[in-house]
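Repro case for the chain-ordering regression, as requested:
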Amino acid sequence: MSATVVRYGIIGAGNMGMGHMNTFLSGAIQGAELTAVCDVSAQKRAEVKEKWSHLQVFEHVKDMLHSGAIDAVLIATPHYMHPSEAMEAFRAGLHVLIEKPAGVYIKQVREMNTAAQQSGNVFGIVYNQRMNPMYRKLRELIQEGELGTIRRTNWIITNWYRPQAYYDSGSWRATWSGEGGGVLINQCPHQLDLWQWTIGMMPKRMRAFCQFGKHRDIEVENDVTAYVEYENGATGLFVTSTAEAPGTNRYEVTGDRGKVVIEDGMLSFWRLRESEQDFNQRNTQAFGAPECWKIELPAFGPSPEHAGILQNFTDAILKGTPLVAPGEEGIHGLTLSNAMHLSTWLDDWVDLPLDEDLHEAELRKRIESSRHKVTTT
Amino acid sequence: MSATVVRYGIIGAGNMGMGHMNTFLSGAIQGAELTAVCDVSAQKRAEVKEKWSHLQVFEHVKDMLHSGAIDAVLIATPHYMHPSEAMEAFRAGLHVLIEKPAGVYIKQVREMNTAAQQSGNVFGIVYNQRMNPMYRKLRELIQEGELGTIRRTNWIITNWYRPQAYYDSGSWRATWSGEGGGVLINQCPHQLDLWQWTIGMMPKRMRAFCQFGKHRDIEVENDVTAYVEYENGATGLFVTSTAEAPGTNRYEVTGDRGKVVIEDGMLSFWRLRESEQDFNQRNTQAFGAPECWKIELPAFGPSPEHAGILQNFTDAILKGTPLVAPGEEGIHGLTLSNAMHLSTWLDDWVDLPLDEDLHEAELRKRIESSRHKVTTT
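-- result from build under test --
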């Protein structure tokens, strides 16, 4: 792109969309200019127009995408709409940045990914937690071999407390037809992304236990325990809930060279002086153990979060900077959440890559009997 | 008992037996006197005789049990032998204290428990970690309702590092015929006891994933992930391994009144000002959450560990003091470990109470093809 400024349009002026508008309009993103906003709600459009009269405001997505007023679109609509809107935007020749999750079921997301590749345009996803220096450091330590071969992952992410009043705040919330899931689709996409992004591995099979409407009057899952096995023999756990207070956010990764725990905004790193495997081979003492060092890493700066993702996406368009969160990678975390649903519905193991048709068929059954009646894609 | 001193005999002069001898002979246990020791090994007997010439030393268990030289016996032999030796001791009219685990399969342990009840004698088990003031405090907090209704348990106990040299130090080690299991039978009995003792609940069903001989040349399990569901709707996890360093020992319990975490020798306690349930019922804010207090508890003293159990057992005989660890309760932790094996072998859910015959039949298959050839009970 030869231009020096990327003109952005935002679809959806809800909580996330408004947040992104504020970020753009604060001038924090170099090389980015917000020029247009689209929302189906007349009230939302009026609200935007009143605050920022210079913005072009659209009712219909297609009108904005084909208006010529924008080079890139940021999609911040309900989950189900991300793939179809992204595909329309690619057809309009635009660069696309989508909010998480990539979509609701991976079959739909795979089509979006194909459209993205065919378009040749820049495609990103707002995985802002990939900007968090602690998760970046963990990923770097693993990529550089500092943890050795990964043996176990264990993420307890139960601090997503959501009272009934939250679920009652929108009839689409926590329904199969409105959101396509619960805590896995709405709250956990970041952790489901980081869980595989940090270690660079997807599981090969999974046995998950979702509980639906636990301590809450909702139809979707809000309490999940998932056990996974990886190709290299490692195992993993992912536990989440929206009904616990104060809850926990603790991510532990063990390799044959040590252990990292991220909890309470801290990364703790224990490193073995030699790999457990090497020690074990030479050791002759029944109660011997490899020498372990507690490592103090340099201090971490603050996380640039959303602004970091918006800047990186803009730089990718203007300068070809590599994306921190390519849109195509949204399918990985979604695969994990789809697999957790399917394993629970079948009460059995599921292998990965997932049987996408089976998952979609099972999901459609739940959508048909959902308490929230809408026409979805 | 009208006597003022309990005369003890110990069966088994291995690591644990020698430890108990030292404790008794140091004079740390009020009202207890060690008078006799029994071991099949001539070398062990000579060793004991050389160190403490005043002790009576026996080769055959029955001879010591019926010698009239002892009032109580402490059984510190291989796991399989605990039930048969305990039953013989009850027949001899003795009080019995057994090392953990209670036995290897619950059918065998149930017979021992029946014999204990019929004898009317005092029956204890060396669950010395029940003396640890942190686990006692957790149990007390739960019993008194400070955590409310239990919603989740999560124990990561992966700091049982055992190198191959450990497994190679005895041909019976880590074999189905010699020990009847691996990390669950040998290393984890304390945690499997505390896991249900602290919360006062056994699961109603379980789905477990044992891995056998992981990173080690052994035939039994040394890597386990178990998921459980309790009658009241709570869920739980238990994760253990002998091949990880430095490993983790972290026990988290969540209730509708708060959360406790025991890790790194510290108990952390977060308490909700009102129960999550009560808050949720009255709350109208979509992102509201119950007020949470971080509680600082009074300092914990050191744990009396083994000496505490020996003193309590002696006091139970002499003064009728209630036992901290009644022998009959050894069956609970063993049930959990048996269920973890069975769920893995069947690759399916197992309900509790466990199908004892099915478990025993499956275990016997493994004993028959065990690499360690012995005649076991």
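Ordering looks correct now. DSSP finds 13 helices and 15 strands in chain B.
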